[in-house]
Amino acid sequence: MPEKKLKKKRIKIMAFALLTVVMLFVSGTGKGSSVFAAGTDKKKDNSVSYQPQIDAAAARKAQLEKMLKDLKDKTEELTNERTELAGHIEALDKQSAELSEQIEELSSEIDTCRLDIMSATEKYLNSKAYADRQYDQMKLRIKYMYENGDDTFFDVLFGSAGISDFLNALEYRMQITAYDNSLYTKYENAKNEAYETGLLLEAKLEELTALEATKEYELESVRTLKAAKSARIIKLANEIGLDEDTIADYWDEIVYQGATIEELTVLEEERLAAEAERLRIEAEYKFNHSLDNILWPVPSSYKITSYFGPRKAPIEGASTYHQGIDIGKSPVGTPIISVLAGEVIHAGYGESAGNYLRISHGNGVVSVYMHCSKLLVDKGDEVERGQLIAYVGDTGVATGPHLHFGLYIDGKAINPLEYLPYKE
Ligand SMILES: [Zn+2]
Fold first, then answer.
1. Given Cys at both, which of 232, 299, 332, 354 links 371, Cβ 3.0 to 4.6 Å?
2. How far is the CA of 379 from the centre of ligand 1 (A)?
3. What's the CA-to-centroid distance between 373 and ligand 1, angstroms?
4. CA of 348 to the centre of ligand 1 (A)
5. Following DSSP, what letter does each residue of 330-369 receive, concatenated?
6. Each residue of 372-384: pLDDT tens digit?
């Protein structure tokens, strides 16, 4: 892989890592881990899930793991090829060494052959010189004998003291000629022999030279092959090195993604817990504010002395259309509880209502508690469902201690018994 490409890849990985960090900061941080978290916890939007980020990081991690595996497989292949190549190169080196040795031997044989040729040539030239000289001398003597042949012959013949002398002389001359001849033949043979030897040696030299050329050609081929394999092995080593760098990068990012997933998972768990808590509070709020769960306002008495609706006013000043119910058989000081959770919107004294409370429960529902001996909450207070809020009394227009309880929906008085858990 070229250096440039690798750099590009690294930049890509870094850019992704940076993006993830930015995303982390944008979407909020875990409590305690960030300086921003402390003051903004309340405003934190728990409805936005970290799951898409976790999924993205997991997908990226899986992708990287796949890439890592592929690259590792590739590197293994390259490493195998490198090992195989190294074996080839070793074999080629061996072959090269063997060929060089053979060439050296051939070269030495060629040198020896050349020396042998030189000595054969010398022998040939010497023998030839001897043969030539012998031939010339023989020729001279024969010529002399024949040029002066008759005279000499007859000189020999008649100059001899007798036939035996003559024969001796003749034989002598013939012997000389034979000796000359034999010497010449000997030199000539030596010359021919040297010549033959020279021819054979030259043929051998030619053969050796051709063999040497073949071996040199072979050696050259082996070297060329080795050069190619060496170049390939260098390339492989380079590639393996770069791949190992990339593998290390992949590892780094996998670890980074793993840490990101872990961090985000913690955030997601915290978010889910916070969301569950929010839902729980919301459900609790709904429960405590719903008419379905309304409580009886005087736990110690279910005695109704006056029902909701038209009636004859029990005393002067009391209403003829009763806007609630009266719960009696309750001495002064009997506890009154808030029928639902809510906010006290009125706490004070009225001429006919005496000490009374109005509590808003949301959704337009308001409860009213009149003639109390004592109010325990103030306007603006948040009260819980079932909280002690006042005591029964007979303040205002009342014939005796009782609680006048009224229930209003959107400002309209309704019969509380439609909702209250009344038991006889
Ligand atoms: Zn009443």
1. 354
2. 22
3. 15
4. 17
5. --TT-EEE-SSSEEEEEEEEETTTEEEEEEE-STTEEEEE
6. 999 999 999 999 9
